[in-house]
């Protein structure tokens, strides 16, 4: 297992190089001159524009720019945004909030999704099952920004139970509503995955055996049914973590959360290659680590799976 | 149960591992706000100690007595808070509150002395500035002639790459400090610079210190309204500590204005900035509140939600979705008034069919084919005012009765006649387009204007979207754009000439349509050389009458400023520059 993990970690290097090159190329291909946009509607001073281009190595070819970037990364210098702020600092302020939000959303999906899914699966075909299924369909069907605005208006503006926006106050209580909105759609998927999986396993041979052995219903359900039903759910949750971190742009916008989505959006609009590439690279790393963890979890959930 | 426990443990351990993995990658630290503070070096250090001692000794108490802190909306400044490098609203409103320039503008756009005692001239070319005695920066350094001269020279020096450097262009010697070895045209297709910055001088010859509180400004040519522009943020003074480490200064600026930063780290990037009253400030913009907190929002929608919950005191824009309801949402607390923003679109004379007499006729026809009243009402819910000239109603010198202003009224018959007359010179072919950036909410009005033109003139007309502002501006700047394109101008200082010179003068910096008319240039020159602003405006009126004939840009409307305030504050007024007069806002007890 250790050897396997090490090998997987080594894969980070080619993935990192490939991903950064690809994203750098994409940002480079964005139309328009980012320096021209810096001046807004005001006259562009060609002398000053030239100076800024030289400062950010925008006056050299694509591969040279990319090599400058790589050279920096080796020394943990991820370049600078146009405002002169180091990209590292931008990430340092954006990631903690988003990580918090993403894990809260993940907890919402995990706890509610698995819990409701398990109950629905155990009572397949019943009233509870039907209600939960309709509820999950509804959540999947509502676009995130509609859900966000409506909940913000109802609970924030009208009822006043929570602050409508989060801002710099990323406390647990303040992030609860955004986390629910962010995790909402995935919650419905987790719920449906768990339900199907549980319902299927209930009729499996090993469950019949366990029941025949005289194990309590509780033990059968938690240890035999639930545990074996978790493999597809864990796969989904693992992949979803990356999606939650990178895909929070809408939620972060609605609730004014100064996180990764916000930083990424601003950087793409400004054409700041170093910022975009660095943030996306970290997100890619999150994806890789999450998928590694999922693979390792398989072995724990199902002892038949072995890694060498 | 044991097995179950191990699953949970594994999950938790996995989560922790993941956290630490991204942590090590992004060098995550515990606190968001530690960033700016950590970067602070010498300048920030001195400021903090000085500010600390000042606030501690004499002044914290009276500042407290003036009332609560006003919560206002803002956006993360695009650039470090250096006055000559701040050219957008997010940073501009902070700069304007923490620096006192020579003059300031009141709500009506009238100019008053602030740091200056007087600005005098006999020929509108050389100005003698006398500073009020006893002013100081919040780090204790006195404000002297050198504070202004050094700051302006820094801003103009091309090696410092300051975005607002062109503001110093009228000053004698600017060309030498903004000099390039090769001529700096637009970059070539690969973005390669065509210029190597190499200033011939480090200081502008037009700035001369007489004594500690007196200096002279010499311009390359006469400009009667030059003092009007001295209230723009680029003309702020800087303390000597700024030049030691301008980067640190930009994070934690030291000013001489009505407010100051509450200390190092008061600028929480992407989150907010806290300003407290500056106890040493002696000018007229005396804070009537306990400070300002600008919370940075990504979108007006979120800010508007906070305003409705009274978690925000004043907002300087209403989100488009709420324009139809904000007056009832905020009874007696909403604002909708014209601002110094002029909107237009430009059809350059280099386009086929748009030069000479034919071009003038076509532009007049297009202008008369646009139903401005209807579009401003329907698309903008009455938050735009149809244009009647090339300036703005909040500027002294604006007019709705210029000769030839009829072309700005909807007139289907006149439009058809003018178009037919142009066709007699050379028949029209092809399609008329208006380019716009689709990331800025322009689609609706561009479509409406195109339809108005299409239906009136019976020609093919449509909008031409560009993905981003950067893309549109690049094509406009390198002149590769075809057809009409959206243009706009927000005045930097309240003067008619600021709406005309930078945009329509031959070779001017924002003359995107390459308009050139010697007679117009001459009138601009005469307006500048006039003894007073009023006299100058007479020449500018004549100049505008030329523009109304040739329409280098087709005026559409003036943007209004929309805004609102909470039930917790009073005395909210919006200035000529669309900004609330922050220092005058009072918090109710």
Written overview of the protein:
The complex is a heterodimer of chains A (308) and B (589). Chain A has 14 helices and no strands. Chain A has 308 residues and is mainly alpha-helical. Chain A folds into two domains: 1-75, no CATH class; 90-301, MetI-like fold (Orthogonal Bundle), CATH 1.10.3720. In chain A, helix 2 packs antiparallel against helix 14, helix 10 (205-212) packs antiparallel against helix 11 (217-246) and helix 11 runs antiparallel to helix 14. Chain A starts with a helix and ends in a 7-residue tail after the last helix. In chain A, 47% of the residues are buried. The model of chain A has no long low-confidence stretch (mean pLDDT 87). Chain B is an alpha+beta fold and 589 residues long. Chain B folds into two domains: 70-294, 3-Layer(aba) Sandwich (D-Maltodextrin-Binding Protein, domain 2); 338-561, Dipeptide-binding Protein, domain 3. In chain B, 35% of the residues lie in helices and 17% in strands. In chain B, the strands form five sheets. In chain B, strands 12, 13, 14, 15, 16, 17 and 18 form a seven-stranded mixed beta sheet that branches. In chain B, strands 1, 8, 9, 10 and 11 form a five-stranded mixed beta sheet that branches. In chain B, strand 15, helix 15 and strand 16 form a beta-alpha-beta unit. In chain B, helix 17 packs antiparallel against helix 18 and helix 18 (518-529) runs antiparallel to helix 19. The longest helix of chain B is centred in the first third of the chain and has 25 residues, at 2-26. Chain B is globular, with a radius of gyration of 26 Å. At the A-B interface, helix 3, helix 4, helix 6, helix 8 and helix 11 of A face helix 1, helix 10, helix 16 and strand 17 of B.
